[in-house]
């Protein structure tokens, strides 16, 4: 509201800030989500009453999934197609719409609002729907920074194209994606804390009947968990730095005279957030699942919290841009840079996430030339391999685009047919590289002791080596490595060695990440490691767990 509104919205912003009003954000409709241009809710300006008439033609046009709308919000920011009195559709605009009376929480007449009902997770949030039936709101409720309607109904905008206006409105949402990345770091941290603490205590088998091993001692268990521990550290440090960078970008948005630079930074941040949000939410999804399985049967107890974490992280893959759709924004930006490079033009990457691409043709000539595990695991060598992969995917995706263009396919069809194994992977590797680079740059800061730096470097190497091991096929297929180089053995043995090295540090490393016990709130993951004591308390505290089923009389013959 602050990004897209003007002085006329000061009063309402103040009431939202001090809690007299509560707000929500209504973009998605029942029949349209990712493709926002398909939204059907209309806001028709009526110069006689100087108001907009909001209307949802049917249930398909109902706004839905809106967090906070189901039972509580008094106001919604609603995206609607703005229709001026000349019957022209001026495209999607944002309106502040009163939904409920703040005194009674009852909906206003001509507004149908309600809750979507139980969800897979996040049930603490009341996601709701709303329909408008020729519902009038004052003219000044339009957020009018990019486009406005005069009292007599003329449309005015400093941005000429509808796509620019929509871009400005949606651009204001970038911070939301960054926040999601931060939320993911909290979920992945909790999951890894619970799993590693539990696995350090849980014992099964051993070299002899007398000697049982904690399951974390097993190689396979380390390989299943420690790469996620490494990811958690890389994600945590990355997201902190990333938020700081974005905040200073937002300040320069308001203050900088250099509009060209700000615009280039804006595009890069948009591309970056469009790749990083999918990567982090997917890595968190995979980590939570592995943590759940790593805790065996007890991990399946609701009390372990792993199921809840899995369900709560799930929508991170969907909202603020469905991952598979959102990630296309990043690959489009990268492909644009690559086209410039091929034409011999300079490229602009003021945030620095893709500046290495200007050397892309040389990077593609590089060959794997390491002979020891130490060399392969050296962070700068792993970073080079990730850079090579980005250039490789750029080249392949660009070739596919050119091929489809030559075949006369439309832009829509070209984009659609260059995603799988190409543009999508490109954007993911770009995000993987950005995380690793940011993490390593941060390790150069003087705040770290040499011991801390040493263990953090191991974590960085494990993160990058794990990313690369999954793409060995491409490293061979693209000619970076040949079968005689032994890259597979060196990378894989490197991962196993790192896991072994980290064994003694693992519990301390999760203790660093862990919130206080009352937030961990899982008998498997409390800091004292007294898993069985806490499980017993948990199970016995619920009297129902010791009772016969409520229907026992119906099922037993004796009825006693
Ligand atoms: C818990 C939760 C909270 C939410 N909160 C809000 C909120 O507060 N406000 C709000 O406005 N919305 C909210 N949403 C809605 C959310 O933003 C949308 O669900 C999301 O943008 C995806 O849109 P969709 O559901 O229409 O999916 P669709 O766009 O219908 O996607 C369906 C599938 O099709 C695929 N697909 C679609 N287009 C393409 C393409 N071009 N190429 C390849 N694949 C494609 C997608 O990848 C997806 O797998 C929330 C959703 C959830 C789950």
Automatic annotation (TrEMBL):
Active-site residue numbers: 320 (proton acceptor)
GO cellular component: peroxisome
Pfam families documented for this protein: ACOX (PF01756), ACOX_C_alpha1 (PF22924), Acyl-CoA_dh_M (PF02770)
Cofactor: FAD
Pathway assignment: Lipid metabolism
Domain Acyl-CoA oxidase C-terminal, residue spans: 379-556
InterPro entries membership: ACOX_C_alpha1, Acyl-CoA_Oxase/DH_mid-dom, Acyl-CoA_Oxase/DH_mid-dom_sf, Acyl-CoA_oxidase, Acyl-CoA_oxidase_C, AcylCo_DH-like_C, AcylCoA_DH/oxidase_NM_dom_sf
Any single GO BP term: lipid homeostasis
Protein known as: Acyl-coenzyme A oxidase
Source species: Cephus cinctus
């Amino acid at each position: 509201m602050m990004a897209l509104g003007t002085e006329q919205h000061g009063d309402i912003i103040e009431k939202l800030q001090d809690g007299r009003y509560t707000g929500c954000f209504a973009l998605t409709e029942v029949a349209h989500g990712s493709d926002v241009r398909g939204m059907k809710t209309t806001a028709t300006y009526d110069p006689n009453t100087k108001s907009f008439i909001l209307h949802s033609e049917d249930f398909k046009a109902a706004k839905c999934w809106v967090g906070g709308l189901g039972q509580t919000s008094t106001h919604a920011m609603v995206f609607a197609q703005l229709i001026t009195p000349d019957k022209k559709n001026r495209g999607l605009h944002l309106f502040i719409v009163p939904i409920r009376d703040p005194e009674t929480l009852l909906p206003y007449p001509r507004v149908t609002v309600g809750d979507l009902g139980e969800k897979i997770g996040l049930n603490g949030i009341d996601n709701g729907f709303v329909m408008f039936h020729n519902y009038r709101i004052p003219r000044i409720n339009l957020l009018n920074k990019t486009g406005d309607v005069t009292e007599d109904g003329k449309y005015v905008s400093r941005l000429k194209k509808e796509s620019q206006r929509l871009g400005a409105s949606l651009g204001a949402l970038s911070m939301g994606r960054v926040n999601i990345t931060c939320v993911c770091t909290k979920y992945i941290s909790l999951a890894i804390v619970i799993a590693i603490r539990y696995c350090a205590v849980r014992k099964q088998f051993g070299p002899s009947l007398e000697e049982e091993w904690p399951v974390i001692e097993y190689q396979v268990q380390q390989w299943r968990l420690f790469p996620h521990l490494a990811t958690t550290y890389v994600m945590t440090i990355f997201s902190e730095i990333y938020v700081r960078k974005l905040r200073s970008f937002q300040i320069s948005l308001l203050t900088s005279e250099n509009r060209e630079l700000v615009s280039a930074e804006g595009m890069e941040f948009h591309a970056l957030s469009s790749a990083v949000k999918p990567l982090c939410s997917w890595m968190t999804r995979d980590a939570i699942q592995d943590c759940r399985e790593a805790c065996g049967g007890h991990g399946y107890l609701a009390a372990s919290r792993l199921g809840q974490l899995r369900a709560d992280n799930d929508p991170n893959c969907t909202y603020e841009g469905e991952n598979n759709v959102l990630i296309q924004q990043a690959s489009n930006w990268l492909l644009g840079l690559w086209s410039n490079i091929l034409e011999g033009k300079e490229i602009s990457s003021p945030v620095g996430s893709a500046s290495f691409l200007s050397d892309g043709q040389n990077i593609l000539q590089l060959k794997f030339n390491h002979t020891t595990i130490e060399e392969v695991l050296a962070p700068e060598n792993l970073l080079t391999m990730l850079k090579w992969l980005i250039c490789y995917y750029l080249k392949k995706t660009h070739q596919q685009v050119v091929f489809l263009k030559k075949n006369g396919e439309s832009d829509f069809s070209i984009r659609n047919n260059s995603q799988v194994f190409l543009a999508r992977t490109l954007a993911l590797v770009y995000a993987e590289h950005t995380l690793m680079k940011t993490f390593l740059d941060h390790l150069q800061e003087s705040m770290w002791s040499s011991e801390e730096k040493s263990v953090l470097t191991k974590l960085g190497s494990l993160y990058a080596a794990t990313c690369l091991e999954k793409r060995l096929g491409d490293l061979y297929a693209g000619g970076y490595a040949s079968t005689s180089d032994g890259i597979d053995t060196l990378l894989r043995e490197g991962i196993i060695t790192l896991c072994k090295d980290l064994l003694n540090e693992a519990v301390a490393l999760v203790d660093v990440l862990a919130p206080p016990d009352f937030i961990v709130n899982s008998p498997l993951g409390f800091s004292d490691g007294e898993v069985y004591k806490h499980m017993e308390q948990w199970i016995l505290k619920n009297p129902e767990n010791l009772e016969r089923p409520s229907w026992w009389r119906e099922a037993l013959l004796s009825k006693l």
